[in-house]
Write a structure and sequence with these properties.
The structure is a homotetramer. Chain A is mainly alpha-helical. Chain A folds into 2 domains: 9-75, Winged helix-like DNA-binding domain superfamily/Winged helix DNA-binding domain (Arc Repressor Mutant, subunit A); 77-120. Helix content of chain A is 64%, strand content 7%. The A-B interface holds A 19, 22-23, 81, 84-85, 88-89, 92-94, 96-97, 99, 102-103, 105, 107, 110-111, 113-114, 117-118 and B 19, 22-23, 81, 84-85, 88-89, 92-94, 96-97, 99, 102-105, 107, 110-111, 113-114, 117-118. Chain B binds a DNA duplex through helix 3.
DNA sequence: GTGGTCTAGACCACC
DNA sequence: GTGGTCTAGACCACA
C-alpha cells in the first residue's frame, strides 16, 4: 500500500480499515488483523497502526478484547456508513459545489464524468 | 479572515489569493497587496504571508518586480484555472465517485443536493 | 563551514548538500543529516537548514519520509548532474565565451590556465 | 533590455554600460547618456540608473562634469579591461574548473563548444 | 526522535 | 516603500 504525501499515515490506515468494514469484507464481531500483522504488511511502525486502531476505537467502529485483539463492532458497518454519509452531505458536497462554481463546471459535466467512470470500470 | 484549524495558515492564504486571481478580482499584471499590508489585514506575521507568496511564485501564479511588489502573472488566472480543473477531473471526481459507491449514494442524490444548494443561496 | 557574504546561507547549504549528492558521498535512498543535526554542525538556525532542505525537495533531489527524515532521491545524483550539466552548457559556457571575446582572451589562454590549475592541485 | 531575476538591476545596468565602454562604442572623454535618458530607455527608475553610474564612478570608469553629465574616463576602457581580466583569471576561471571537475567535463568539451560557438555566430 | 509551522523582531539590499 | 533573510524560541503532529 502506498501512502499519500500530505495526509497522516495513521489516518490513511484507519480509512483503509474503515473501507474494509464498510464493504463487509470484515464482518461484525470478526477479528481484524493484529497490530503487528498489519504493520508488517503495510511496512510501517506498529505504533502507527496502533494509532489508527485507537482512532477507530474512539469512533466505536472496532473494539478491543484484551489479549485477543481488535474486533469489528456489532453495528460497525452501519455506524461507519451513517457517519461518513453525514459528513459527505454536510461537508464534502457543499465544498464540491463551491469548487464547481469557481471553475465554472456545471452539474452536467459531473453526470458526464460519472457515466464515463461507471462504464470504464 | 478566519483560518481553519488543520491546514497551514500560509496555504490558506495562498488559496485565498488564488481565488482572487481566479475570479478575476485581481487581474493579470496587476499589483497584489504587499506582504506587510496583507499581514496587517489578516493579522498574521509578515513571514507567514511571505511564505504564501513564495508558494504562489513557485507555481508561477504571481511574480515579483524588484522593489515594487508582487504582480499577477500574465496568464495567471488561465493557468490556475486549467491546473485546478485538471486536478478536479482527474483526481477529486474519481475519488468522489468511489466514495459514492462505497456509501451507496447515486448520482440522483447529488443532483438533488445541487438543486438545494443553488436555491439556498 | 564558512559562508560567502553575498549569497543566502540557505542556498549555500543547499549547494553543499547538492555537491555531496553529486559526488556520491551521500548515495541514493540514503538518509541525510536531520535538520537539527546539520544546524548544530553548521552553527546556523534550524529554520535556515529547513529552508535549504525545502529548496532541494522542490527540485526533487531529496524527499521526506514522515517522521524519519530526509533521503536522497532514487535518481538524485543523476538528476542533479543532468540539470547542472545542461545549465553549464546552455548558459554558463556561452556567457564565458562572450566574456572572453570582450576581454580578447583566446581559448589557448583557458587551456594554459587549466594546465596550471591541474598541476597546482 | 530585459533583466535577469537574481541580480540587482543597477549592477546589470552598470555591466551594460561597462560593455559599451570596453568595446569602444562609447569612446574616452565622450558623454554617455544622461541618467534620465537611460532610465526612460531601460524603463527603470532614474534612481536605479544613478546608482549604476555612481558604481562606475567609484571604479573610475566614468566621471561627472557638474551640470553636463557623465563622461567616459580617459583610460576608461583600459581600466575596465584590466580589472575584468584580473577577476576573470583569478576568480571566474578557477570556479569554472571546479565545476567542470564536479560535472566530469573535460577541457576538450570546452574547446568543442567554443568551436561551435564561434562558427555559430 | 523527526519535520513543520508560526511569531516576534531584527537587519539588509534594492527601487 | 518593497521583498528577503536570519535568529531565537515556541508549539505541534507524527513515527
Amino acid at each position: 500500500m502506498e501512502f499519500r504525501e500530505h495526509e497522516a499515515i495513521y489516518l490513511q490506515i484507519a480509512a483503509h480499515v474503515s473501507d474494509n468494514i464498510l464493504t463487509g469484507k470484515w464482518a461484525a464481531e470478526q477479528k481484524i488483523p493484529s497490530v503487528r500483522e498489519l504493520a508488517v504488511e503495510l511496512q510501517v511502525n506498529p505504533n502507527t497502526v496502533m494509532r489508527a486502531y485507537e482512532f477507530l476505537q474512539n469512533q466505536q467502529e472496532i473494539y478491543n478484547k484484551r489479549g485477543l485483539g481488535f474486533y469489528v463492532s456489532a453495528n460497525g458497518a452501519a455506524q461507519v456508513k451513517a457517519y461518513r454519509k453525514e459528513r459527505f452531505l454536510q461537508q464534502e458536497l457543499p465544498e464540491l459545489f463551491r469548487t464547481m462554481q469557481l471553475l465554472e463546471i456545471g452539474i452536467d459535466e459531473i453526470e458526464k464524468q460519472y457515466t464515463i467512470y461507471k462504464t470504464g470500470k
